[in-house]
């Protein structure tokens, strides 16, 4: 005897199927009033005690089976398996349809009321339908084949597909149809809402300032963190007399913002208002530093999905690998359909969810395409000859992606104007007269669940995945060669797909999105679908950045945050950088810093700068300059000039600059004589991009006399002059030139020079860094 997998390679195969479903029965005494019942909860007055009977059916032409009570009445099987839909979050649900030929027998043979006469009257499925509620009962479709010696192992020799019953009905030709649905449909995702409506009512009118909120006594408010009444949110501090006749919610000052207790993130702003007795009090569900897998699990379990079908360890590992820094911080302040809620989470974090009918588990994967290929399929073997077809899916292509996020007041509508931030990713490499002539945009729904890191990953990963038009590939596979599963990434070798040279392509990678069995009188074959893709990240590859970058631009994030050690070359081309930290390695997980390497080639006069330090106001200190590049512990090679042809064929000569910004000058001292007060001069701003702003000579006293403000620095390397102090007030200090501290003044200390490069534990090697091309300032490379 052998398992299904062990017998897969048999050359000449004989296939058959067995359908099993479990129905509740009562095996002991069963009566209806004074009459005998028929052994099911619908036909017995006695309580059901969790007993089931497994019914088994097989094909009329199945081989002789080594077991009894397997009815030969299966007329046809049609299975439409789940299909992953990359970029759309939730998969298309699977379904199963089975037609049975009815026959004379009784499904409860042996039950108390099933006499010989009852066995002969009516039909098997007619009586089953009358005695049972079939909806949502478990169904197992078991795929078997004869072993090489002709034996059959009914216990271990099957591949099992799991479904639940949707409907069972008779046809007009003596047959019955069993319609089954994907197990994920247990949650009735299109029919349920989350969070479930949880809340009560105001007992009486309230004005816009009272903090003791009178509510109904039928709702349990004991665990409530916040509530929404109309468009106003209230942070609940304590609850008096919960579930009593005079329940009161003691809330924070009305109109105050609500902050998460663990993460410290502001969840929402709000405006106080008056409310009327009878208004709904909606209890908000809280996500406070919640992981993606945790929220998805909570929603599914609350929607009646069996938690045993969620592989929690696998989900947590997937999220940790691809979204280690992303947590959800929000109030779920209105009930939405479970489909909509899951879709918002999955598309916002670019993840796929589907139900694996064979593993009997709900699967979660980070778009499922950052995986290495696990198999190579060859036309004529794994792919039946002459069955491979392809079709472009241009609707998914996008060279630009945009998502809007950060909604300050959750009660506002979902228009763009309600959101404060946006993330856009653009790939210009594919736009030209020779390639795509114009951009194609992907505009994600505005999303309240994601933060800046998740938003940047979402747009980057989508464009990296779909910048070229993806193709769906369809083919037929024989069962003996079906060694891959839905969700796998595979390589396709096929004569019908040519490379640029005209030879068969060996570079085509694709993700299996659907494997659908076809049940024929000659046995089973499989219609397979896969979607080609450009991997989100390819090790030892190259990215060209041809636009200004700044404000902590993450190189690691820009390549999709790979989860394994990486080496990547970044070409900074003909533009500039800016910001307090212009660009950085990124938040690379400690586990993959070792073995990772960043290579930066500056070309076409790239001007690496950061913000100059701000000059001090009178009697105030100047501010330090910014950081151009922070390696954050990731080993980095940077090429300023010289031959780089061994690294990049497209950019064989380096030509660029990194120049630390200057610090701001200190503010001058004030001077007071008689009843006159002269404010000291402002410090000059440091050189940089953005240039440091000069300090002010000012105070809040209307009779004070201001001296001269400090002057701004510039982007050409010169710090701003300090402001002249009037009368006895002293001058402000000058801002620093590139890489220089500002000048101290009698009223305030100088700001420190900025940094060209900070290693922060990395080994950073500079090539062609002449004195004019690299100015270190206060960095790690004097």
Give an account of the 3D structure.
This protein is mostly beta strands and 782 residues long. It has four domains: 15-181, no CATH class; 193-336, no CATH class; 375-532, no CATH class; 537-782, no CATH class. The protein has eight helices and 48 strands. Strands 1-4-5-6-9-8-7 form a seven-stranded mixed beta barrel. Strands 11, 12, 13, 14, 15, 18 and 19 form a seven-stranded antiparallel sheet that branches. A hairpin with a 4-residue loop joins strand 21 (352-356) and strand 22 (361-365). The longest helix has 15 residues, at 452-466. It starts with 14 loop residues before the first strand and ends in a 7-residue tail after the last strand.
Percent in strands: 25-35%
CA gyration radius, whole angstroms: 35 Å
Helix segment tally: 8
Largest sheet features: 7 strands, mixed, barrel
By helix and strand content, what is the structural category?
Answer: mainly beta
Mean pLDDT: 93
- Ranges with pLDDT <50 over ≥5 residues? none
Q: How many structural domains does the protein architecture include?
A: 4
Distance between the termini: 73 Å
Q: What's the shape? A: flat
